[in-house]
Write a structure and sequence with these properties.
By secondary structure, the protein is α/β, with parallel strands linked by helices. It has helices at 63-66, 69-74, 85-116, 130-134, 220-237, 250-263, 277-288, 295-302, 319-324, 346-353, 372-378, 407-415, 431-445, and strands spanning 2-5, 17-21, 24-28, 55-57, 80-84, 140-143, 148-152, 155-161, 169-175, 178-182, 205-209, 241-244, 271-275, 313-315, 332-336, 360-363, 381-384, 387-390, 394-397, 423-427, 450-451, 458-460. It has two domains: 2-215 and 403-460, Metallo-beta-lactamase, Chain A; 220-401, Rossmann fold. Helices cover 31% and strands 21% of the residues. The longest helix is centred in the first third of the chain and has 32 residues, at 85-116. Bound molecules: zinc ion.
């Protein structure tokens, strides 16, 4: 069989891995490239005949794993897309939202280029529309965790809980008497609302994420303390707390942390805006699929107490309401998307706060290279919607809230294997990080069969 790497190779986004065996082609994940420098790949011709792909297996709903689905369906894919039920439901929301953003961004770009009298680097047409996104839905086939599914008489797949976001999976594919394991994104041992990743004990080939393969996260308790400190210090100065929030999982987890800090009387009650229609919709799914949550969060819901609600929490659905937030005097907490500041309402909250020394911008998730979020973390001046702004607000990053395993947790995942995988492919990490993780694994596990694939590389396995 052949495995072809079509994304998340020495970079984080665009996860797509194609397995070809005996005339069958299975694509694992179908993600969008989101780094500024790689986005053009979303418009490139797909590097394999789309109509020849039989199945897509989806590890989870994040757009860097699912966001290319509308495009591939538009281009002719008509097979089944297998994933868990929460993944299918969250992906539907994410894709519609992504379609809207694609349309808006294309229009904004067109206007800007028209004004400036130039042609942009990328096409001014949307990659796909919400209607294209809706065409994906009928192809979903939902699966249960740990259920053996036969794709045909020679191919079997099993989804295991990855503990990364609601519904996320580690996927096993068994074919040609070999077992291939795709880690997807691996969650944390101690997630506030999800169970830890399932233990996998054997694989012949392992394709594993390496987002944080070069570092160890701050402990959850210390992250919570820091979050508390940032909020209190910002309130004292009279600024706002702006949290670029991934709508899926992170928003709900942050609400949970805020509720916890409030219950423990560690922060004052502040007007808090969940300024993300998508996060609000996804929150409903967390309530619906509460049996997928861990014991702590499930207990809340069983007692009919929401782990995500508190008195001054407001859901801002319309853009008008969102803009009105900027007229409020006194400190407020604003959670808004997108999480890496690549689009959406967060941009106007940034414009209103980034030059205010008294405000804080708190990153609570991964910021990929080439995204506005990363630029805010690293630069003194950034461009937002075509204008330049000086970064004067307090900028903080809390990695302890990450939904990704850190190096130790990745090692822990690996150490559960009774027999080591014959070959390990490191994906979903920046080039430097993947290199460091590879060195670390070679030293600690005394294994040499570690590969770092490049874009479009294929391996006969
Ligand atoms: Zn993810």
């Amino acid at each position: 069989m052949i495995i072809k790497f079509l994304g998340a190779t020495k970079n984080v986004t665009g996860s797509k891995f194609l397995i070809s065996s005996n005339g069958k082609n299975i694509l694992v994940d179908c993600g969008l490239f989101q780094e500024r420098g790689l986005k053009n790949r979303n418009w490139d011709k797909f590097p394999f005949p789309v109509k020849n792909i039989d199945f897509i297996l989806l590890t989870h709903a994040h757009l860097d794993h699912s966001g290319y689905l509308p495009k591939i369906v538009k281009d002719g894919f008509s097979g089944k897309i297998l994933c868990t039920e929460p993944t299918s439901e969250i992906t539907k929301i994410a894709l519609i939202d992504s379609g809207k953003i694609q349309v808006e961004d294309a229009e904004k770009k067109r206007k800007r280029h028209e004004k400036e009298g130039r042609k942009g680097l990328y096409p001014e047409i949307p990659l796909y529309t919400p209607k294209d996104a809706a065409n994906v839905f009928e192809l979903f086939q939902v699966v249960e965790y740990n259920e053996k599914i036969k794709l045909d008489k020679n191919i079997e797949v099993i989804f295991h809980n990855a503990g990364h976001i609601l519904g996320s999976s580690i996927i096993e594919i068994i074919l040609e008497n070999k077992k291939i394991v795709f880690s997807g994104d691996i969650g944390r041992k101690e997630n506030p609302i999800l169970p830890p990743p399932e233990i996998i004990e054997d694989a012949d080939f392992l394709i594993i994420e390496s987002t944080y393969g070069d570092r160890v996260h701050e402990k959850r308790e210390s992250a919570e303390n820091r979050f508390e400190q940032i909020i209190n210090a910002t309130v004292k100065k009279g600024g706002n707390i702006v949290i670029p929030t991934f709508a899926i999982e992170r928003a709900q987890e942050i609400l949970y942390y805020l509720k916890k800090l409030l219950i423990e009387d560690r922060i004052p009650h502040l007007l808090t805006f969940l300024d993300s229609p998508m996060a609000i919709e996804v929150l409903e799914l967390f309530k619906k699929y509460f049996t997928y949550l861990n014991g702590e969060a499930e207990k809340f819901i069983e007692k009919k107490i929401s782990p995500f609600d508190f008195p001054l929490l407001h859901f801002t659905k319309s853009v008008e309401e969102s803009k009105m937030i900027n007229h409020i005097k006194g400190s407020v907490i604003i959670m808004s998307g997108s999480g890496m500041c690549t689009g959406g309402r967060i941009k106007h909250h940034l414009i209103n706060n980034i030059e205010r020394e008294e405000s804080s911008i708190v990153f609570v998730g991964y910021q990929a290279k080439g995204t506005l979020g990363r630029e805010i973390l690293e630069e003194k001046q950034v461009r937002i919607l075509g204008n330049f702004y000086n970064v004067k607000a307090r900028i903080e990053k809390i990695e302890g809230f990450s939904a990704h395993a850190d190096r130790e947790e990745l090692l822990n995942f690996l150490s559960n294997f009774k027999k080591f995988p014959e070959n390990i492919f490191l994906v979903h990490g920046e080039e430097e990080v993947v290199g460091k993780f590879s060195e670390f694994l070679k030293q600690n596990f005394k294994i040499s069969n570690i590969f770092i694939p490049s874009y479009l590389d294929e391996y006969k396995i």
